[in-house]
């Protein structure tokens, strides 16, 4: 069943056509990868889906409901959460407080928010670090905190923006296992932007490749890596170094 449906989405920044007539569908329970070289428009697409910026034209529907003109906090309330390329913990608050703040939305059933937040922190491997000031966490742990804070909103759709950026290979492997587990246990639908191709291709069931704001290919990871347009746009360029 389709959860997210995007039709002819378009966005300009002045003379730059950052997102061009993008259409895509995401089924409930899928992990879909968004692949594209630097500047292809991937984060802009997330910003459009989450209401951070308005589209020039086109439609986004979630479970059949239009998200046109809906502000970001209400989109979170409809079940869409995201993480950012650069970790943005609430500085001056503990790890636990960061997650409790994420729990204050309308989707969270009445419960003891602290107990729930502790459970989420245990889920992402941060048990024992509840009282640590968020900004003192290692970079890898900040990535986990970002995910816990997103989960705290009780999302149905989770948008991950380069979760492996800045991590070493063992941290990437651990985070990958975590994402796969959360997907299975919580029945999440996930969109994943990532340049670390090896882990990316193992995680996703389907890939939407974009270049210069346009969808250039859609298919399974195996189909995508063999697609000449994708090889030309992405794999053949310098970004391949990120895959190592
Ligand atoms: N607010 C903005 N104002 C002007 N131009 C912008 C804005 N946001 C993004 N852009 C431009 O739009 C294009 C797409 O940017 P975007 O960040 O979506 O790319 P990306 O695919 O996420 O790249 P990366 O992989 O490097 O994160 C780029 O040329 C970028 O400079």
Task: Put the structure in a nutshell.
This protein has helices at 42-49, 72-77, 95-102, 113-123, 139-152, 169-186, 197-203, 221-225, 228-235, 240-243; strands spanning 2-13, 16-27, 31-35, 57-62, 65-66, 80-82, 157-161, 189-193, 206-211, 214-219.
Describe this structure in words.
The protein has helices at 42-49, 72-77, 95-102, 113-123, 139-152, 169-186, 197-203, 221-225, 228-235, 240-243, and strands at 2-13, 16-27, 31-35, 57-62, 65-66, 80-82, 157-161, 189-193, 206-211, 214-219. 36% of the residues lie in helices and 25% in strands. It contains ten helices and ten strands. It is globular and about 50 Å long. The strands form two sheets. The chain has a six-stranded mixed beta sheet, with helices on both faces. The termini are far apart. Adenosine-5'-triphosphate is lined by residues 13, 16, 18, 36, 38-44.
Task: Summarize the helices and strands and which ones pair or pack.
Layout: E1 2-13, E2 16-27, E3 31-35, H1 42-49, E4 57-62, E5 65-66, H2 72-77, E6 80-82, H3 95-102, H4 113-123, H5 139-152, E7 157-161, H6 169-186, E8 189-193, H7 197-203, E9 206-211, E10 214-219, H8 221-225, H9 228-235, H10 240-243
Parallel strand pairs: 3-8, 3-9, 6-7, 7-8
Antiparallel strand pairs: 1-2, 1-4, 4-5, 9-10
Bound molecules: adenosine-5'-triphosphate.
Residues 13, 16, 18, 36, 38-44 line the site of adenosine-5'-triphosphate.
């Amino acid at each position: 069943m389709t959860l997210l449906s995007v039709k002819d989405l378009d966005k300009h920044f002045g003379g730059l056509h950052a997102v061009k007539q993008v259409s895509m569908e995401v089924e409930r329970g899928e992990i879909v990868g968004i692949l594209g070289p630097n500047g292809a428009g991937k984060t802009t697409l997330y910003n459009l889906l989450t209401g951070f910026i308005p589209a020039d034209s086109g439609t986004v529907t979630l479970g059949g409901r239009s998200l046109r003109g809906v502000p970001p906090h209400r989109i979170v309330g409809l079940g869409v959460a995201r993480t950012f390329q650069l970790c943005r913990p609430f500085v001056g608050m503990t790890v636990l407080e960061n997650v409790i703040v994420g729990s204050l939305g309308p989707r969270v059933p009445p419960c003891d928010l602290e107990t729930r937040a502790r459970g989420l922190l245990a889920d992402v491997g941060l048990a024992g670090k509840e009282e640590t000031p968020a900004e003192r966490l290692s970079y890898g742990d900040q990535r986990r905190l970002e995910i816990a804070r997103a989960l705290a909103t009780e999302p149905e759709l989770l948008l991950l923006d380069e979760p492996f950026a800045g991590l070493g290979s063992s941290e990437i492997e651990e985070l990958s296992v975590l994402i796969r587990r959360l997907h299975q246990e919580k029945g999440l639908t996930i969109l994943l932007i990532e340049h670390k191709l090896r882990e990316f291709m193992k995680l996703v069931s389907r890939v939407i490749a974009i270049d210069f704001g346009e969808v250039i290919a859609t298919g399974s990871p195996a189909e995508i890596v063999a697609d000449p347009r994708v090889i030309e746009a992405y794999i053949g360029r310098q970004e391949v170094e990120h895959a190592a």
